[in-house]
## 1
Amino acid sequence: MKFSSKVEKCGLSPMRKFHPYAVAAKARGVNIYHLNIGQPDVQTPPAFFEAVRHFEQPVLAYAPSPGIPELIDAIQNYYDKLDMHFDKSEIYVTVGGSEALQIALQCILDDGDEILIPEPFYPNYNTMTRTCGASIRPIPTCPEEGYRYAEREKIESLINEHTRAIMVTNPGNPTGVVLSHEEMEMLVDVAQNHDLFLIGDEAYREFVYAGEPLQSMGQFADAAENVIVIDTVSKRFSACGARIGCLITRNRELMAHAMKYAQCRLSVPTLDQVASAALYDVGPEYFAAVREEYKRRRDTVMQKLQAIPGVICECPKGAFYVMAHLPVDDADTFQRWLLEEFEDNGDTELLPGSLVDRSHLEEANMKVLDSTKLRVEDGGDTGLAIGSLVEADELEEINQRIRVSGGSPAIARDLKPASVKRVLLGITRASLATDSFLSAASFQETNRVLTEAAIKGKIDPLIGLKENVILGKMIPAGTGMHRYKDIDIRENYGF
């Protein structure tokens, strides 16, 4: 069977192609932290769910292809508050920001066309572009310069007869770069001078941490023919599962073409639109609290990353990602190693990479899980050292005193058990994976085992068969077991 050359050129999503490895790791009992996808864990505003509960239409019908009027009005009012004014006909509701971007690219790209995008970029841009028969010409950046790219000479040197658009994520995904007004103005001018579309993916607009006012490509009304804004509720309101986004442009011809795709997929899910319209009534205090939480997490991650030798990492100014240059040769190989081979001793006393039997592992993990102590991750103003252990009750008392005095409390976490990978040992290594140093020393690595036991002052519990045979003691099996030693056996012929 023959398949489309366009789909043949599409690779697997870099964010999701390791899913099978993650599933296998979870099956082994490994705890996975998903850093591969921007899925917020902050609470979705309750207004979303309340709107669904109060939906009283007897039939869940198709919605209008451009979107329901209530949601379009809500989006329009949101931009009005930012002093960006769009006509209702300039706003199309889409199935997430992804569809908005896909429709825009399908409207402007032909086979052989190119689009300029700062690299590194959101990986799915590659797939979206290739399905249009086009390709990405990267605008190069580097970690040493904080992934900055907004230089006129750098961008114009990449424009050729195949270039159709410039696309930027602002704030940046995954770099966290935030464009200044002057940089955005420069990009608009370049787009106008070269007759290019300028696509602004602005999913993270509210998450800027230096106090700058919210910026948007939509504020350049004099570039009506060039500018396309992609927006979504996914990140802004922690509602990724709602799949509600929008395509915004003052280019009427582009909107007319976009309507062809909108009508082809009939409509965006009605209930999700109804609920998302309610989200736009959420006040600024919601965003203030979310920004503060993301900023706290950012600072914690940066502190840890910058303590690792060889890591190059600029503190992100926006969004909620950290782009770090790690001292590894190949990121894909590193990720597979993490999922298949990496072992975490958690907060146990086990050594990473050591061989332990199941009972020893369970004992070590239960000790950790039953502990009432917490591991300090951020000492705040308490004076507690990062990594130190503190009783939960004691930490609460310390934090309470700090809060009263106006200081920052410490942040701590529960202790973590060890994660392991099952291994099938050869006879030599299997003989060494025992708590008895006498048993281990009797096989092949006698000098090493006995020397290590002497240095560490090991005590042999003598619970196995081999170590007791070596010492000429009674075999701990059957009547040789301790529980039977004191049994008085008498003959009874009285039956």
## 2
Amino acid sequence: MPTEILIIDDNSDIRNILEELIQDAGYKTRLAANFNQGLSEIDKKLPDVAIIDDNSDIRNILDELIQDAGYKTRLAANFNQGLLEIDKKLPDVAIIDVKLDKGDNDGIQLLEHIKTKNTDIPVIIISGHANIEMAINSLRSGAFEFIQKPFDKERLLNFIKRAVENFNLKKENKSLSIKLFHSFEIIGKSQNITSIKDQIQKLSQSESRVFINGPTGSGKELISRKIYKNSNRSKGPFVIINGALLDSRKYELELFGEEKKDGSIVYGALEKSSGGVLLIDEVTEIPLETQSKILRVVIDQKFKRINSNHDIKVDVRIICASSKNIKNEIKNGNFREDLFHRLNVFNINVEPLNKRIEDIPLLVEYFIENICNTYNYKKFKIRDDNYLLNYDWPGNVRELRNLIERIAILSPGNDDEKIINIIKESLSKSTNETFSVADNLSIPLREARENFEKEYLISQIKKFGGNISKTAKFVGMERSALHRKLKLLGVKGLN
């Protein structure tokens, strides 16, 4: 990301000259014409730290200390004030006392409330009555760090600095992922892809509900994003909820949200996507009782949060996707036929990659260009594509993209033999994956999830040549947290 330079000058000619000069040198600029504008622009970029503590002396000490270190602060003296500040605007970092005025662990409740809104926000828990159990509970609930009163000022500031860096890194990674995903185009010249492109053009100008069928990794989410991006709702949110990844007890919570006894609200996907588009991926995995409630949303555009009797009105366009044969799911009683007919106003069918092999060379060329430009890898050519054309591609376009990224990471240059060896090795591994869904159907969900995590982390560590720091950065974990996770999963001696 280019460095950003703030120009503060009350002379418009000087501002314009500086802006042009600095932008020509490859930097981003922001302008301010007077003291107040300059102050406002500076404040925009300062990390926002929320301090929630019922002890006024501690609040004031923290406030002065943190402001002197170059951060903005917001103060709250009790649980309700803290809740109000969090709901008003999420901070970049929160410092919360364990015990406020509502109970022994009401600070932990605020921590959990923050995590329902954004899991990435770092929360530092402080306490004057600390014990090991309290510290463990805080960290298990998602705390970034736990610190005991009286605290060492330098140590606390170091925690805040690390927390801000961690949060910014996660924001940057997400931003890059979104940009990368949005930059992807639907590539291909097959009849199926040509037809889909035409359908997207027509659908983008309507408000019709869409049902997308296609195998895993075929590009259903990308098609949804393209419909959204080209529509009148493009300035609104785009929210994804995946029925296959949800805990069976949390479907309604994730969709509809919840009103808690303390008055706080957990917003569900429907409210988050109001004014925009909601993609319900793998919709056939959602339980029948929840399907009936989705039907009401589709018909009336309103619903009730959990623990609430009040209707919430929303304005949302729903797009659904599934990798399963929907007619079979209806026949077997797994999906409501009336809901399907409501959702299936317009149907898009995506064929697997092995049925449109004429698209493979175009996709390869596109992915090489896109991936190498985005991550600054050395470009290469695949001169012999026979292996690619004759492979079955069970993971479809996603598997092909992963292969191209793997080649780019290993940087073979234009050594044809090395490229072919990488392709052969990768495709042979893909046909003999150690983690198989079928093999894990007979074991509990927790064990299956652990198996997947283990295989995933081993693969990522190998991808980065055993470098734990690079792996941790890529998967979005702290280095120490990754070490703990690997130890917990029994992963040892990786090179």
## 3
Amino acid sequence: MSTTPSSEQDALLRAGIDRSLRHPVMFFLTSGAAWLAVSILLGIIASAKVHSPGLLSSCAWLTYGRVFPAHLNALVYGWGMQAAFAVIIWLMARLSRKECTMTGTILTAGHLWNLGVSLGVIGILSGNGTGIPWMEFPTFAWPVLLVSYIAILIGSFIQFRVRPEGHVYISQWYLLAAMIWFPWIFITANTLLHCIPGHPVMGAAISAWFRSAFIFLFFTPVAIGAAYYLAPKVTGRPIFSYSLAKLGFWSLAVIAPWAGMQKLTGAPIPYFLPYLGAAATALIFVPAATAAYNTIRTMLSAEETLAVSPSLRFTVAGIIGLIVLAAAAVFLNLPGSTLPLTQFSLSGYGFEILAIYGFFSLVMFGTAYFIVPRVTRREWLSSRLIKIHFLFSVYGIITVALITLFGGLQQGIGQEDWKQPWAAAASRAYPYAVANTVAWILILFSNLFFLLHLALMWIGLGRRSSHPTLLQSAHASSPHGAEGDIDNAGPATSH
């Protein structure tokens, strides 16, 4: 493949950027994948305890009240946040066209983050959790996580500031916003919960708002920002509409902060709050549909690329998950019909899992399959392992979503019937819990392969290739610059 001096210089620049971030990116992805496996294993135990309460009953550390929150917190902070960090630091460097100068600091922050997550999960399992959903980590874990996050945040802003003056990519909009929004929602929630005394019910309302804001103001913009990078990068076509991308961004910024309170319909809180939350959650359909339409239109007429690119397959699956999530947000929050049925049932859990795994995680997988060959300078070892990961992940999350969303509705119908005992209503969820356990086992199986694949790539067992991410050609028309052959970009062993 012939290259012009300019394209060769660009290839060297990209190679330098990728080398500078090899170890931080691979550390975040690999440790995140390890926490994902731990989370799924804990989720299997929690799900099994719903239909088999006596399972592991002799071990206090593995009671449902400890395993279930440990499962969710490991999923959110162990996997979700670390996958986001890997994508953010790599994309910021790539789009700024500057090598990272804080590699050591970011890598140290990654070790601190894992220490904080470990302390938090162990604290929950040992009975020291706070009992506040998604904030169950004991107080001694949060300072470690805070220090780590501040270091990564500073590194991201420095990387953004050194970009060439001029155009700011829409991906950078979403990623920077996510990094700013998370401290805001976390500090706000903790201030209202711990520093301002109030009624316990308001504490539940704040917790519900925090979980919703976490999903829509951190995980969602990170995933959309990654999709807006991958779609044009892999297909070689510009974003269909930059105006639509900005519309989606600002509509998300305006609507998302108001969502979440619908989880407390009928509670002794101001009457308008649950309905405001329900309306905002339903209106999330606007930015979700905008991002999905824009991304899919960008990838139209790229069937051949879709067939050979695992990045596109996972991204498309994640975008479809976003559409399903937005539709579920509308369907599950209809006042007077479905809204009262979903508050204390499997449906709430299903909605959160659909958001974190069915949308966010699938896009992160696609991004990882794009990034890893570039930072390791190696090709993925096995396309078969990638296909297994894709199929089991997609089928597994479809099963989990259907079972929890619809099973939760059946459970909610039983709970609304005040004439029957609570145990009878809870028993409605029994068959769904069994199927949910089986689905999580499938997902665990697929992600163990993903973890193994990542670890083998990190230690350099993949073969050198001029066609990273299993693509059969480079796309010189990409608005982010042609990738070229990675063999033209310097030695594979230099860091």
## 4
Amino acid sequence: MEKEYYYLDEKEQKGPFSIEQLKTVGLKPDTLVWTEDFENWKPVREVEELKVLLKKTPPPPPIVDNSPSSTNENENEKEKETKVLVEDSNVKFWASFKIYSFSFLLIGAAVLGAFLISNNKKKELKNEIYSRIDKILDGKTVILDGTYSLTQGELEETGYNSKSKSKNDNSLESLFKPWWEREKLYTIFKALYGGFTIKMLTKRYPDGYDIETITSGDMGYKKPASRYVQPEYWDGYKISGGYYSDNYRLPVRQCYTQAYEFFTKEDRQSPGSYTPGKFVDITNFPDIRNNYFYMSNREPIQYTSSGQFSSNWYTSDEHGANINTEDWAVYHSLSGRHYVITENNEAINKDLIAYLAISIGPIILILIIVGLSKPKYFRNLILFGKRWKNISYHDQIFFFEHSFFGKHQFTEIINDKVLKGLLKFTDKGNTINLSYPNKELFYKLVKIDKDNLSLISMKDKSEISFIRIGAAEKKQENTEIITNNEVIDNEETNQ
């Protein structure tokens, strides 16, 4: 009876097999075998009758699984298959270009989004400023309001008399006269405190506003406190006159009241501008602000009809302007400031940086995570777009097609037979999975460079080497020698 042997395939016992059957198994020198004559398992190299099998061991199998599959083989035979001609392409460049372009596109979209958010917030906050100003103006261009209190001061006779009147008032000397003499006042009232204050807010252009403050000062009477009544005679007798009589002059308080009413009730400055209750709003107008905008006291940024082109203006002489009648004059001073709605660039830029960090940060984090999770991604791109020839099985050629968004595909050509399947990377890019219609194969990536590819089968730990078709001439010659020898060995084994 012919001997029967058992062998271990990765700790799995297989058999029994005859020596003739073992020829097709592909034993290796270290493969453990056992037969009934052995006390223990022995490696093939120590079994004399099996050593001859080592010489006939076929070379490492091709990357395809050659296990029998009669159904699929019959189906493949029924189909007329033609050899696929493929050309090399620079997949790494284009894939890298797509990745970087996509990354820049995402970052650009994030930056654009941050700017849009910042601009929308800026627009909202500026509209908020406009709304607060419109609430103060009540749809008007000019509003004014004032406060009034009892004026306290002292009356003083100026000494202005007929002698003063006789002087040449048209001479240059009149410019250097005291204000009361220049204004021809008999009595002046020197105000110490009290009086009235007028606040006027004027809109000059969309973002420019004037605030003018009118403050009362001294006053004066244009006629003396008394007048001399000429005597009248009849037949040599004085029947009347010959004495000083008081002139009727409006009380000081009423003079200030009428002057105040000139700006308010009479509304002489701008008809319809008097708006009671706005004094505090006008006073606090310069304090209007939010996170992005504030009122800045500065020069007008465009032409205004006010005639003022500075940030501040005022009357140089406190007795230069007045409200007057035939009998009296109330003097006042005027000061003005121009305000412009101004951006708070520091706050705007700070928020913009925060928005950029919020929008770009996650994208950069994702790219970092992807880069860490797939450290071999760019290295493995070398695999694609090239024709790889199996050094051990000369007639086998692989072409791997890269897909940026979809699944990677591969084309296997063995003589005139063409198979297609899907390619996946696992183990952080260290292992490839080839999915055929009827099977799946796993291989460890050992080496990938421009011209060489080495894989280790996860099934039997055999190493399979490929060379790029079109590699350097010297490499091609060596490959041809190795391939021819292995093909011969394959033929002998098959025989």
